[in-house]
Amino acid sequence: MTERTDASTAVSLAAEPYSFDLSLRALAGFAPTAGGHVIAGGRVRKAFLLGADAVVAEVGPGAPGSGPAVTLHAERHLSPGERAAVHQAVGRWLGLDDDLTGFLDVAERDPAMATLLRAAHGLHQVRFGSLAEGTVYFALIQRSTQWYAAARKRRVAAELGPRLRLDGVEHVAFPSLATVSALDDRDLIRFAGSRLRAARVREVVDGVAALDEEWLRTGPYDEVRKALLAVPGIGTFTAHALLLRVLGRPDDVPLEMAQFEDAARRLYGDPPPSPAELRAAYGPLVGWWAYYARTAASWLPQDTAVAVPA
Fold it and tell me: HhH-GPD domain spans which residues (predicted)?
């Protein structure tokens, strides 16, 4: 909980087009991760887990044509390998490596999406800061609300995560899956809010922890989805949420759900394109369509957006 004793800065590369300002805007609107980072003065600070320690990444705009500048703050000197690991975590959190070229090529030929692209030029997907954070959140939100799931997730971090104080502000890193899995039943019920939800969190956390994270990020999509669906407590919504909003895999989305239908209606009017039509148009990049449609539609000028019927 002491102030930093070591700091290092480097510029992270980002696939073009990229806008750090839009990353900040998307982070500010991503309610499930509220309280897990601090945005101020056009920069954002977030704590990441490194072994048993917290390292705070301070991310701000880089030079024109580059990715953001990242300063790492730690209580001790970090090795080059440790710095690289945290930079990788930052890149995944902000979707810096996401190649949106194929999606943008299709979207620019879609009149409604082309209009949206002008308001969201350079937007990359912002995600949960770690697999552990996203897994716990999506286990908690089942049969609950976004607000309560986010609040319970913050409590897990506050009580179990390592922390670092920087300029008088305490930043907490979300704990590992192993730390959450090691909780006894009483503590897990206290965090989850009920015995049933605690049992679900345990089976989801244990099941995801048993899978190799790098394989989840890079393995064949259908095989990864099948493995997630085989975890007790993970259904279609949770599997796709983990794949897109945690692992950054856009291959498919449950477009039949109301939130995606509402997003399509806002963009295209009524009736909106069917899930089959959207999948045919965007193929294995339909997750980027869903992300842009749900994140950036409200950024359109009021006289451009199509109102969602009451």
Answer: 140-302
User: Quick one: which of 177, 178, 199 has its CA closest to 188?
Assistant: 199
**Which residues lie closer than 8 Å to 291 by C-beta, 6 or more apart?**
125, 244, 250
pLDDT band for 49, please (50, 70, 90 cuts). Answer: very high
- By residue count, the chain amounts to 310
Q: Is residue 15 part of a domain?
A: yes
The CATH number assigned to the domain holding 42 equals 3.30.310.20
Range of the domain at 42: 6-98
Tell me the percentage of the chain whose pLDDT exceeds 70. 95
Residues 6+ apart with CB under 8 A from 219: none
Environment class of 152 (CB within 10 Å of its CB; exposed 0-12, middle 13-18, buried 19+): buried
Mean pLDDT value across residues 252-278: 94
Angle between helices 195-209 and 131-140 (to 10 degrees): 150
Total structural domains within the chain: 1
Residue 225 tokens read as 């989805």
Query: What phi, psi does 218 have (nearest 5°)?
Result: -125, -15
Consecutive H or E run containing 109: none
Does 66 map to a domain?
yes
